[in-house]
Specification:
The chain is α+β, with helices and mostly antiparallel strands and about 90 residues long. Strand 2 and strand 3 form a beta hairpin.
Length: about 90
């Protein structure tokens, strides 16, 4: 591995970790990740981010969980879900 430090702006850090930019800023404020750069331009170490991504298990958001639960329906062989309401076939 190269000894050269690679640092990325907040936008790319958020993409690497699959979170919003505000989350990156909160994690930096809490000390979960290290913030580099100037007062006007935040930078984050790419190696630190990838290590965090590798060791962190994403927690589903309540909205994502509710959506997944609402869309998951058990359908019998006859095409009728467990609720008893027929599913239209296209």
């Amino acid at each position: 591995m190269s000894s050269r430090t690679r640092r990325v702006p907040t936008e790319l850090a958020a993409l690497v970790l699959g979170v919003r930019e505000v989350t990156i800023r909160q994690w930096a404020r809490r000390g979960k990740i290290t913030r580099y750069g100037t007062a006007r331009r935040a930078l984050y170490d790419l190696d630190e981010l990838t290590e965090l991504a590798r060791t962190t298990t994403p927690t589903p958001t309540p909205t994502a969980t509710a959506t997944a639960t609402a869309t998951a329906t058990t359908v019998s062989a006859s095409g009728t879900p467990a609720s008893g309401v027929p599913v239209p076939h296209n």
